[in-house]
Design brief:
Chain A is an alpha+beta fold. Chain A is built from 4 helices and 5 strands. In chain B, helix 2 runs parallel beside helix 3. The chains are: A alpha+beta, B alpha/beta.
Chain lengths: ~190, ~190
């Protein structure tokens, strides 16, 4: 049983290493002095001057639709809604960035995460994606929250299902500590 | 299994150390023939921090404002005065850059966290924070200080990021001449 468990763990770790040895990281920065609890409405800001960073994501309806849906789901769960009329109190912007980064997989062998041939040490490049969601206070036009998720996107942009799963997981993880709005108490 | 736990423990120890005990390299220089006694007031250059190399920090006001607040506190402590209007003596600029680096040294051999062939190369993100002080009238550089360190695990934790900024600014500004306003004593002295 123990041997089988070890084999499974090795297989999982090797799969992660093959995907660029990067597990998803997500976190956020917040304006701790800003009172989110008095707010209830949000909307999407107009596209800004920042390109999405990769032509495979620009105007990609799968990416954009799921990103919008995932963010709206997280905000709704925390007591925010889109306004029926009038100006929203919060504006949402997003940016996506893809960089080529280097991975040295010798560390996998070092800590026993791979076996024999899978442990061949070496450096290789992989595509690292960063998805950033910014929340702007409309009244002051200031950033009050920024969340992000980072992961290897090797083979993800060409695979609809993996892209959707990654967007959903990244948005859910970055919003973990997003402050609740005024409607939360009414839910 | 015990061997794996030992290695996992070593990995966690190394990761914690990389995040919290990473050394800070600091340096500075003043432009020769600069008479710092003629500078007292300063203002901030309003340029946004962009293209830092880390998209989490680009246009990130939490990062930029923390750096500015830390520098303001250090400048105030050293006798410099921030002014909102008028004609300041100096303009301050900050630059930040994050680059992926490879450390092929025997990283923990000296610390005992690994030994012999267990000490391998690794990659990390190195951050550089640079402060430029310009002559506001001529727009020429009069002083530059910078600090470099590993940022692994730092940006994802806002409290840790703030502590790292405070420490980096503190070690940079420790190299800045101190202005003393009381009569009879030297206007400037190194506070080291």
């Amino acid at each position: 049983m123990q041997r089988r468990l070890m084999t499974l763990m090795m297989a999982a770790a090797t799969a992660l290493a093959a995907a660029g040895c990067a597990t998803m990281g997500a976190s956020s920065h917040v304006d701790s002095g800003f009172d989110f609890a008095r707010l209830r409405t949000f909307d999407w800001g107009s596209p800004d001057a920042f390109p999405l960073g990769d032509p495979r994501l620009d105007k990609n309806p799968i990416f954009l639709d799921h990103l919008h849906g995932a963010v709206e789901k997280q905000l709704a769960a925390r007591g925010y809604e889109r306004p029926v009329t009038g100006r929203p109190q919060l504006l949402i912007h997003f940016h996506a960035n893809i960089d080529r980064r280097l991975n040295i997989n010798a560390a996998d062998a070092k800590y026993g995460y791979c076996l024999d041939d899978a442990c061949r040490a070496g450096a290789r490049e992989y595509e690292a994606g960063t998805l950033i969601v910014d929340v702007i206070d409309v009244r002051t036009n200031r950033l009050v929250w920024r969340g992000w998720a980072q992961d290897s996107v090797e083979g993800v942009l060409e695979d609809r299902d993996r892209l959707v799963r990654m967007v959903d997981a990244g948005v859910a993880r970055m919003f973990v500590n997003f402050p609740a709005g005024a409607l939360k108490g009414l839910q | 299994m015990r061997r794996m736990l030992r290695y996992t423990s070593a990995a966690l120890t190394m990761a914690t150390c990389l995040a919290s005990c990473a050394p800070v390299r600091v340096n500075s220089y003043a432009v020769p023939m600069t008479d710092m006694r003629s500078y007292r007031t300063y203002t901030w250059d309003v340029a946004e921090l962009e293209s830092t190399g880390d998209p989490r920090l680009d246009h990130n006001r939490f990062f930029k404002e923390r750096v500015q607040e830390a520098i303001d506190a250090q400048m105030r402590f050293r006798g410099y005065e921030k002014v909102a209007g008028g004609t300041p003596d100096m303009t301050l600029h900050i630059h930040a850059r994050v680059q992926q680096r490879i450390d092929s040294a025997q990283i923990d051999g000296a610390g005992g966290s690994c030994s012999q062939d267990e000490c391998r190369s690794y990659v990390y993100d190195e951050g550089t924070l640079l402060i430029d002080i310009m002559n506001a009238r001529t727009r020429s550089l009069i002083w530059r200080g910078w600090a470099e360190r590993s940022l692994d695990g730092i940006v994802d934790n806002q409290d840790l990021m703030n502590q790292t900024i405070d420490r980096a600014v503190s070690v940079i500004c420790a190299r800045l001449p101190v202005r003393r306003l009381s009569g009879g004593r030297p206007l400037f002295a190194r506070d080291e």
